[in-house]
From TrEMBL:
This is Epoxyqueuosine reductase. The lineage of its organism: Bacteria, Pseudomonadati, Pseudomonadota, Alphaproteobacteria, Hyphomicrobiales. Binds 2 [4Fe-4S] clusters per monomer. Gene3D superfamilies: 3.30.70.20. Residues 304-334 form the 4Fe-4S ferredoxin-type domain. Catalyzes the conversion of epoxyqueuosine (oQ) to queuosine (Q), which is a hypermodified base found in the wobble positions of tRNA(Asp), tRNA(Asn), tRNA(His) and tRNA(Tyr). It comes from Xanthobacter tagetidis.
Length: 470
């Protein structure tokens, strides 16, 4: 992929004060998901296919005996749960009976069963194909496999980007730099990364709300349920079924699932897996789905063959770069997060730099302008996942109502939503800036009520908004 030479030198330093750094180990990511240094989402196949056969893989419902060190019995559901005690084994009894046995397996019934089970089982489909089928069954729209060493120049770019300070006060980007720059440092045993994309294309142009100055613009990804919660259970189910299939073939393996929940460079890995390319807005663009794509990953110790790389199809287009209201792209393919409204409204805790406030318009949570500008969206279709469909109350909410929210009302207003993760103070700060930009003097009263707010960041934004309303 072409990168503009010398782009790094153009990164703009804003010298804004840095908010407190996050403790290493557990972080909140850009979109609020919890990030742990090494995910606890490990699914281990603690037995070989031969053992599986001996224990009776063909006896569904048979109780599962774990190794003493892991202790106890776990149900299939609990085996994929969180937490140390739930770090899961997949039990023989949880392996669906229709799966073929390990080739050359020890179980005396295998040969006879192969006859009964029909063609294809002597030469079962490659695990790559199984993974692809499972992903489609779980509703993913894009699939590919990347090798763990596929990051190439992206690692160096990440390091240059952080060294430049373009990550602003996302201290967790710096804290996790070495692991993020190489999946093999994150997890030395990893042999392949299954990269998945889920289309969340909006039904309408999300920019329509930008003209309604007394309404708040919430970015498409946050108008519905928190996508982390939608995607992660699906990744777990795929991982579990894939391990069961591998086990039936006598292969022991581990997997970890990620959706923005670990220091993993999801975009360049997805590009290496052929899901699309990183456009000039830096996000992954797909020829079939445009820019509206969530990414998820299943890392595994299974040796899976990588799929092809997609080449860059941006050409001479600059629509996203020119659409950015805050000029957050110092060069094509490079973002300065410190100027990005998504960063300012979601990640940045303190007061928003004065010079950027007027440029934010009524965007109160995230921003979609660069994504929406992409001509490849003409091939996009509206997302199929009901849980990711925008909630009507988040399409164009009244700023006057949102600015009055206290802590409890804020949590109640955004159930199961990623928005809840930024907390009430940061959210009301954003709403006040939008009110300041509305030019609507009738909102002075609700702003004045926030001048005595307990949170300093809210009082600061209220003072600024009042000044703007005149
Ligand atoms: C940090 C982060 C942010 C930050 C920084 C944005 C960014 N572009 O990195 C902020 C808060 C601003 C942000 C915003 C958004 N995010 Co975000 N974010 C992430 C996160 C956690 C890490 C991304 C990362 O590694 N950034 C580091 C930089 C270095 O990476 P990069 O921009 O890809 O840099 C590449 C190129 O730009 C280039 N480059 C960079 N610097 C330099 C320097 C030189 C000299 C050169 C030549 C090249 C070069 O090389 C780099 C490597 O390929 C990922 C999840 C994940 N774990 O990957 C989600 C993720 C990227 N975000 C996502 C989304 C949806 C968004 C928003 C659309 C949300 C919204 N509507 O508000 C916006 C989009 C803004 C934008 N244009 O990027 C999705 C993107 C899906 C996709 N299709 O690509 C992800 C993958 C989450 C997910 N699992 O779905 N995000
Ligand atoms: S999300 Fe908005 S502010 Fe951020 S880079 Fe894209 S257009 Fe610019
Ligand atoms: S808007 Fe144009 S330059 Fe930007 S990502 Fe899409 S095709 Fe590439």
């Amino acid at each position: 992929m072409h990168r503009a030479p010398g782009a790094r030198a153009h990164l703009q330093a804003l010298h804004e004060p840095r908010a407190g750094r996050r403790a290493a180990g557990r972080h909140r990511l850009a979109h609020g998901a919890r990030q742990s240094a090494l995910s606890s989402e490990i699914y281990r196949l603690a037995f070989q296919g031969a053992q599986l056969a001996r224990r009776g893989a063909l006896q569904p419902g048979r109780p599962c005996r774990r190794r003493a060190s892991l202790g106890g019995r776990l149900s299939g559901r609990r085996a994929v749960g969180r937490g140390r005690e739930r770090t899961g084994l997949v039990c023989a009894g949880e392996v669906p009976p229709h799966l073929p046995p390990a080739p050359g397996g020890e179980h005396p019934r295998h040969a006879a069963l192969q006859d009964l089970r029909g063609p294809g089982l002597l030469n079962p489909a490659p695990l790559e194909e199984i993974a692809r089928r499972l992903s489609a069954e779980e509703g993913f729209d894009a699939f590919g496999i990347a090798a763990p060493d596929a990051l190439g120049e992206a690692s160096a770019h990440l390091k240059a980007w952080v060294a430049e300070g373009a990550h602003g006060d996302m201290g967790w980007m710096a804290d996790t730099l070495e692991r993020r720059a190489d999946p093999r440092t994150l997890w030395p045993q990893v042999r392949a990364l299954i990269m998945l994309g889920l289309n969340y294309g909006p039904a309408e142009d999300p920019r329509a709300v930008l003209a309604q100055r007394t309404k708040g613009a919430i970015s498409v990804y946050a108008r519905a349920e928190d996508y982390h919660e939608v995607i992660k259970p699906r990744l777990k189910r795929i991982a579990r079924a894939l391990l069961a299939e591998a086990s039936a073939r006598g292969v022991s393996a581990d997997v970890k699932v990620f959706v923005d929940t670990a220091p993993l460079m999801e975009k360049p890995l997805a590009a290496a897996a052929g899901l699309g390319w990183q456009g000039k807005h830096t996000n992954l663009v797909s020829r079939d789905l445009g820019s509206w794509l969530f990414l998820g990953a299943i890392a595994t110790t299974l040796e899976l063959a990588p799929t092809g790389v997609e080449r860059d199809h941006c050409g001479s287009c600059r629509a996203c770069v020119e659409a950015c209201p805050t000029a957050a792209f110092p060069a094509p393919y490079v973002i300065d997060a410190r100027r990005c409204i998504s960063y300012l409204t979601i990640e940045h805790k303190g007061p928003i730099p004065l010079e950027l406030r007027p440029l934010m318009g009524n965007r109160i949570y995230g921003c979609d302008d660069c994504l929406a500008a992409c001509p490849w969206n003409k091939f996009a279709v509206a997302g199929r996942e009901a849980k990711l469909a925008a909630r009507a109350e988040n399409d164009a909410p009244d700023l006057a109502a949102l600015v009055t929210l206290d802590d409890a009302a804020f949590r109640a207003r955004f159930p199961k939503s990623a928005i809840k993760r930024v907390g009430r103070d940061r959210f009301v700060r954003n709403v006040l800036i939008a009110i300041g930009n509305s030019g609507d003097g009738s909102l002075r009263g609700v702003v004045e009520a926030r001048l005595e707010d307990e949170a300093e960041v809210v009082r600061d934004a209220a003072g600024w908004a009042l000044g703007r309303l005149g």
